[in-house]
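Posting this for the archive.
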Amino acid sequence: MKLTNHIEFQESTDELIVTNKGNRTTIKLENQLSRMLVLLVEHKEEVVKKEAFIETIWDGNSFTGEQALTKNIYKLRELIKQYQLTDSLTIETVPKKGYRLLIHSPKKKINKWVIGIPILILLGVLATFFMSRDSSPKKDPMQEVQVIDLNDHSKDTVIFLEPDSNKVRVYRTSPSDTTFTNLDSLK
């Protein structure tokens, strides 16, 4: 009987057959493990009571059956781990009641690079686009250059650069007076 797309259980031969990427692995089960798996598979997703295992496999002998059941559930779980089937099969303990076989559909693993690389490329393109974009219009630097002819000015000439407006003002002071006369307005 087929449990998942890649796991098959053959009750007649006590074999669990796992197919993974074209490779086929046959796992030979002990007779008691096989019979326990039959009960779990027939009642998958449902609780199989401990008494049902003991009655079916150990003919109702609860003294022998109780210990053997615990030991064999452990063995089945170890086989599931050993063959890396935990993504597909889980034997769940339901306290004071019994056990339940959960069969999971294998999740497709998505390669992180398949998603990551296009996102990184998109982020790089967007960053380049926004970093190269300048919201202010480009100005010709030669239009902002002002030439001041200082040949006409004496040593009493003071030149100020007004930081807020980026304008240059030329003032003249007189030796006796501390006031400034704006030479730009005299032109």
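The beta strands are 7-10, 15-20, 23-28, 47-49, 89-94, 98-103, 157-162, 167-174, 177-182. Residues 62-82 form the longest helix (21 residues).
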